[in-house]
Amino acid sequence: MKKIFLCGCQLVYDVADESTFIFNISVAKTEHQRILTERLTLTPPMGYQEYVEPILNNRFVRVNAPQGKLEVNYEAQVMVSYPDIEPDYCLEVPPAQLPIEVFNYLYPSRYCESDRLLRLAEKEFGDLPGGYGRVQAICDWIYENMEYVAGSTNSQTSAFDTVTELCGVCRDFAHLGIAFCRALNIPARFVTGYAYQLNPPDFHACFEAFLGDRWYIFDPTRLVPPEDLILIGKGRDAADIAFATIFGPVTMESMNLWVDLKQP
Amino acid sequence: MKKIFLCGCQLVYDVADESTFIFNISVAKTEHQRILTERLTLTPPMGYQEYVEPILNNRFVRVNAPQGKLEVNYEAQVMVSYPDIEPDYCLEVPPAQLPIEVFNYLYPSRYCESDRLLRLAEKEFGDLPGGYGRVQAICDWIYENMEYVAGSTNSQTSAFDTVTELCGVCRDFAHLGIAFCRALNIPARFVTGYAYQLNPPDFHACFEAFLGDRWYIFDPTRLVPPEDLILIGKGRDAADIAFATIFGPVTMESMNLWVDLKQP
Amino acid sequence: MKKIFLCGCQLVYDVADESTFIFNISVAKTEHQRILTERLTLTPPMGYQEYVEPILNNRFVRVNAPQGKLEVNYEAQVMVSYPDIEPDYCLEVPPAQLPIEVFNYLYPSRYCESDRLLRLAEKEFGDLPGGYGRVQAICDWIYENMEYVAGSTNSQTSAFDTVTELCGVCRDFAHLGIAFCRALNIPARFVTGYAYQLNPPDFHACFEAFLGDRWYIFDPTRLVPPEDLILIGKGRDAADIAFATIFGPVTMESMNLWVDLKQP
Amino acid sequence: MKKIFLCGCQLVYDVADESTFIFNISVAKTEHQRILTERLTLTPPMGYQEYVEPILNNRFVRVNAPQGKLEVNYEAQVMVSYPDIEPDYCLEVPPAQLPIEVFNYLYPSRYCESDRLLRLAEKEFGDLPGGYGRVQAICDWIYENMEYVAGSTNSQTSAFDTVTELCGVCRDFAHLGIAFCRALNIPARFVTGYAYQLNPPDFHACFEAFLGDRWYIFDPTRLVPPEDLILIGKGRDAADIAFATIFGPVTMESMNLWVDLKQP
Which residues in chain C have Cβ-Cβ distances shorter than 8 Å to B165? Predict the structure, then answer.
């Protein structure tokens, strides 16, 4: 199934003094996402540096902005071909066979303290057959037990907090899914993207689990079907791929996102 | 200054049932470390898989061990040429110029919650001139304020804990150094190694900070001069490069390390 | 020195369904505070229950409010005679002599994890001579190192958080002062009150330390001189004496406080 | 049902320098516990001070011990009459009717962060009918989900930790029970005691919940039937009633407890 989306964002900042931004807002280039057209505009016009991280292909843009207003406009036309999934063939791979390069995604990270969730993960999901269904069960648990409450968490909130406090936003739902997976020896990582028909529009976060021989996407918020997500970045957790990491005295003035489906 | 060390370890495990080990005990191959001879022996003899991580060149060995006793012997003869350092030329690089590939080491990780130490780092070190001296001041602060108490911390202890509780072991000292550096926008990472004349012998941990155009090593425990450390691994924090990550019902029976200086 | 204050508050709630309130807004009756006149009014008129806790004399009012709007008005005219303090005679009392009834205020509580601050307290204040001056030094440390930022903390923030994060509001300043004192074996407790010329007007929190043979008040925010505080409650920490503890679906609509000095 | 127990303890300390001990090892005097004989012996002989806390009647003993060895022997013969319980009549009392003096046991404390368990308690127990059965369900949950692992926790471990990490000792089981109860507006407090046939012998901890018009004891470890517990102390949590709180450089050398049932 192929879809063509037009997506983008407009970010407006008040820069009180010379500051550096690392943006991760460009659509990822993957075998399932083909970028047809793309444009990044800075206002006032200024130079920027692009960097593609060689392992995960995350696309970072660095902007060194002078004092004043900074407006960032990004827009892309993307063909997304979301592959069919056959859950029955998505098996968990034991550590004995797991590609060593994905072990990184088994280890705890800032927001996913899987080392503290071992017994809980075992209690809740240990008896289930391994594979796609077990990761789906993790997502179901999160969906059923956590409440989505805008503003209930902040940039320090981690999976260890939310697994008990049971509320948060998409980022927290994803972190908890990742932590549970890792606690069960299923590699898992954080992904961000533009999401079609997400309301209110915002950068979305969900997670990927490694099953069989590749990564599969899961969204414990159930807000966005996988085929309606246009991927931006991947990382250990939100610390790696904030849409904007800012060094300097900067205030965000406004943020707008949009995703449109191009009719065939 | 060149030194030749003979170093190694013997690890003995009781494997209650088929288990997988990821070892990170092999000496790193770097421009400053030349491995003259090296040998890894498993008893009983069994196959293993080597993997060199492409970015940091960490050398991992995977062993899938059957039930029974497992003895791992590693031994290497290494020529270490520790470069002269001119602290006055080791400047901090502002985010505006920092190579984008090192930004990863500015972000918080499982054991280094730099996002929670921003004000404290600023209070303690914000007024110092940036550069080697400032990282040295961080190490001095840790050395003077933290007490080295074997067994006082565990695998869940993080920099946020120890910055107040003020005791720990080498791993905790390193995590706190990293967290302070990142809070000041100095990239920092965790390193492990064999240490000459460390007493009692053990795997040692310290940290590297990125200054000027390369990484410099710092040891806030003051237990090991940099030229007496034979590097093994590098990572975001201890989660990435445990000397042994074990999947299965395994008990360690004994661990021995040794480092000898080969007389010229 | 005697002053007469007129103080009070107006609290307006939207009660979505029958709810119970425990208020702790009535001025404390102590040897230094004489209540000249006092009035509590509930609108719409409804019954309430008063309770004076026998040890600390905290005055609680329970209101079982029906669905609808609830307006609470409290007003008191209070003569406050703040005693002279001779810091040189305010000595710390060692546990060997301390009245056993104050040991409770040496133990850690929800927001004052003194058990985790032992080394830090020793490092910062261990070399100072015991007594009033040492508690004053704790207040100075807090004042100089913490930033008062409205809205930066919430009802879960504890001294262990703020001692590193270094920002908070009066309640957090007080909790940290208490935690440091207890870590040094100085009994300390949380106090609340109406504060003259506090801007913006709000319930104020500070703390008391036990020295010599009685409790002395300290305000690490430096916002309110002790003689301008009209005490309400005392407790182990904020958990004990919230101005309003609410059981039920209630929203606060507005809160007003006032304190006037009656001219002689 | 009446039973007569002989219980006691022998505590041996090495006191490196003059130190103060607060012991809470004396059997409580309650309407259900009658002390027939009792003896406290200090070796070498030295004076001590007894203090009975007026609200909870906890019996504290303060000893100011000189440098050297300190041996504490306590022994009591106690008639325990454990009342029959009719669970069907043990109702939860809503905050609207609860005696105000027990509200203290609704608030969070050092080891029982009930404020962070609100949603989890509601999710797990919110649909159950209130009363004895609901507290019993909390105990069942703890018993079924937590693993009793000696040495797995320490004096800083709290209910917020163990509710996810799912292991601990009797003290942790009790703290979690208390936290769940408070989160559901059921007053709950920590109790300690001598326990008949506990193996290995040790001070035991469990908790009480306030139902109907009095406190009922619950033991989520299922190690000790209520009628085999001889109560010592009650408090908000373990911070209040450690069997020994020590001020000074002291090492425990040995601890022995015994409880015998006197045959009729």
Answer: 116, 119-120
